Amino acid sequence: MEIKSFSVPDRILMGPGPSNVHPRVLAAMAKPTIGHLDPAFIDLMDQIKLQLRYTFQTKNEVTFPVSGPGSVGMETCLVNLIEPGNKVAVCVNGVFGGRMREIISRCGGIPVVIDIPWGSAVDPQKFEDAFKENPGIKLSAFVHAETSTGARSDIKTLTEISHKYNCLAVADTVTSLGGIPVKTDEWDIDAVYSGSQKCLSCPPGLSPVSFNQRALDAIKNRKTKVQSWFMDIDLITSYWGSGSKRSYHHTAPINALYGLNEALLLLAEEGLENSWARHKENSDILIDGLKKLGLSTFVKDEDRLPELITVLVPDGIDEAKVRNKLLNDFNIEIGAGLGALAGKIWRIGLMGYTSNRGNINLCLEALSNALK
Amino acid sequence: MEIKSFSVPDRILMGPGPSNVHPRVLAAMAKPTIGHLDPAFIDLMDQIKLQLRYTFQTKNEVTFPVSGPGSVGMETCLVNLIEPGNKVAVCVNGVFGGRMREIISRCGGIPVVIDIPWGSAVDPQKFEDAFKENPGIKLSAFVHAETSTGARSDIKTLTEISHKYNCLAVADTVTSLGGIPVKTDEWDIDAVYSGSQKCLSCPPGLSPVSFNQRALDAIKNRKTKVQSWFMDIDLITSYWGSGSKRSYHHTAPINALYGLNEALLLLAEEGLENSWARHKENSDILIDGLKKLGLSTFVKDEDRLPELITVLVPDGIDEAKVRNKLLNDFNIEIGAGLGALAGKIWRIGLMGYTSNRGNINLCLEALSNALK
Fold it and tell me: Using CB atoms, which residue from A69, A230, A254 is nearest to B71?
């Protein structure tokens, strides 16, 4: 194997993430690295926190990007809010709900699993039944936008039900943030996490999170130490705290944060509402085109995400061959099905900077060509 | 607060990390993001693994960068090799040994602490005494280059002693890798981790690790699941495994890995031995200059790291004022003392791309000016 500088192919990223990254974000990431205790960097941290509050629609003081990919955001939320022996209601309607269940177990929690068919939204009635049948649930966990299926759940209602039973709620907004409304304060979600590489159109590697006061109080009242040192929210918030109260925890990924700041700025310039509208509009156009090609979507209309469209592979079609043709002949990446959906669906992402008419047209042309 | 694109000051990074990043590495990070399952990205992963084996001087198959800063590498090594109730010998001669002790406890391990005065190397005799006094130690943990003090320990000897007592050894090489010899295979270290932002001269955010077969066997024979899903070495190695055996775990930080690949290539072009020699030579020049300014180093000659020189703050000098003058008038960042050493020392880094004559000259001039 010859070792050399990496020559990057020019891809259109229409898979389940990462999405294409705006040139301004790429340029920001190439700025010279500075120290993570530099006063200029501390200003940048403050600016990122402000911008994330807008993105999450929250006033939560504790709103910052975890220094790791979305999975670390997920584990950070769960590991801080679960103590050994806690009952945790977890909705599993795809891969990421399953991942939450696995992490809950590893935190010593007792998962109360609400199993939902893959491709459907979480059924609020089934969710509430779990509380009736299992008294003493401390925490609930669910995914807003299931990246493995393309289904959207009503996390406002799921949070309301959780609170009715005196239970805190954690929501996964990895694939929803920036693409569809995420109203952390209005919906009163206690802890929420996301990822940089979906509708925020940053490279992967950062996981924005936000905790409200109820969640922070629960963490403060823990009887046991958080099992992860790196993910301990008390320690991290000392680092991401304000001004002179900051104290060293780990070394933040400086250049990745340059990129996130710029991506959040781009989103603020467009405006969240406009971004949501763009994602919806482009999704409608794509689906229209898919129908004209004789393709059907996997998720029913009312549950379907605009930023991630799952498409049924027609009978007799070798799905991998189609994906390879798109990649090799058109430089378009689309995603395969995961787990039980492998071979059965494609996942077409229209997230963030990727979501534009030119990409949709090319993707439809490529699919038409590949399906011939 | 006005939200805007981040305007980066032009700093010379002579603190304890990050170090200055080579323009080729910055340029690599600005290349377009591609998918983490793209065949081209899989080739890049293979290339990075190959390069890291050279950097760590190992043939270990399981050698890859953890998708998080050095602290995640530390926690990854410990969380996989410790089961609740295990006795773990941990050498504490600075902040990072102390961090290891804290993580060991959070993993359910029982730390057997070898306390060493800050600024000294770990005393092998004291280390061996701990084994004699505490039968049944399963794992030992120590820091090669203590970033908080500037002292180097003899991790070859510490590993030999560990093996004599049938105990695995984990070494922190965050500040040593690339700057002084780290010979993973020759020294037979079982698990080793580092950071991207020191002598590798990458931005922070990645933690290269390597596990030998003895460590992997111990992990395979665990009776309990690893408490962290994200850091579970079995799951991560499926992702970083070779060719068709790869399976999805998390989404790797694509652009950060472009940067690491380029940084490792720069190091290979220079050659490890030449890099070690450069770090030593430049350190000697700096120390000579410091002496001429009437300054003394904190660590005695035989234990002193060439890439991170700790300097005693002279009596009557306001150390923060000196650092601020260097930063504001010369754009030079040097580090303060941590913990018990706050106010007593400065930490001057000559790591990776930072380690050159021009920076040394300017730093000495700036210090001379600030101490007047």
Answer: A230
Q: Which pLDDT score, from 0 to 100, does residue A241 have?
A: 85
Q: Which domain holds residue B183?
A: 23-267
The CATH number of whichever domain residue A342 belongs to comes to 3.90.1150.10
Looking at residue B220, which CATH number applies to its domain? 3.40.640.10
- Which chain B residues are within 8 Å of A72, Cβ to Cβ? 67-68, 230, 250
B316 and B173 within one domain = no
Q: What's the whole-model pTM score?
A: 0.98
Same domain, residue pair B202 and B138? yes
Q: Are A180 and A152 a contacting pair, CB within 8 Å?
A: yes
Chain A CB contacts of B17 under 8 Å are 251
Please check whether residue A285 is in contact with residue A224, taking contact to mean a CB–CB distance below 8 angstroms: no
Are residues A145 and A206 both part of a single domain?
yes
CB contact set of B209 (below 8 Å; sequence gap of 6+): B63, B64, B65, B66, B73, B76, B77, B191, B192, B193, B194
Query: Does residue B73 surpass a pLDDT of 80?
Result: yes
Determine which of B255, B260, B325 to mutate to test the interface with A (most A C-beta atoms within 10 Å).
B255
| CA torsion through residues A65, A70, A72, A77, sign | positive
Q: CB distance A258–B20 less than 8 Å?
A: no
- What contacts B253, CB < 8 A, 6 or more positions away? A69, A203, A204, A205, A253, A256, B67, B205, B206
Give the burial class of A76: count Cβ atoms within 10 A of its Cβ; 0-12 exposed, 13-18 middle, 19 or more buried.
Answer: buried
Residue A243 has pLDDT above 80, yes or no: no
pLDDT tens-digit map of A299-351: 999 999 999 999 999 999 999 999 999 999 999 999 999 988 999 999 999 99
Secondary structure letter of residue A339 according to DSSP: G
Select from B232, B267, B302 the last residue of a domain: B267
Structure tokens that stand for A300 in this block: 């029913």
Contacts of A341 in chain B (CB under 8 A): none
Nearest to B203 among A50, A253, A338 (CB): A253
Mutate to test the interface with B, among A42, A74, A250 (most CBs of B within 10 A): A250
Q: Render pLDDT for B289-301 as a digit per residue (tens, 0 to 9).
A: 999 999 999 999 9
* ipTM entry: 0.97
In whole angstroms, give the CA distance from residue B147 to residue B349. 9
3 state DSSP class of A330: helix
What pLDDT score does B247 carry? 85
Number of structural domains in chain A: 2
How far is the CA of B305 from the CAs of A47, A298, B47, B197, in angstroms?
37, 60, 30, 17
Higher-scoring residue by pLDDT: B133, A245: B133
Q: How confident is the model at residue A247 (pLDDT cuts 50, 70, 90)?
A: confident
User: Which of A2, A7, A8 best tests the B interface by mutation, with the highest count of B CBs <10 A?
Assistant: A8
Contact check, Cβ <8 Å, B251/A17:
yes
In a domain, A7, yes or no: no
| Residue of B11, B36, B338 with shortest CB distance to A35 | B11
Instruction: Count Cβ atoms below 10 Å from residue B1 Cβ, excluding itself.
Output: 7
Q: What is the pLDDT of residue B154?
A: 98
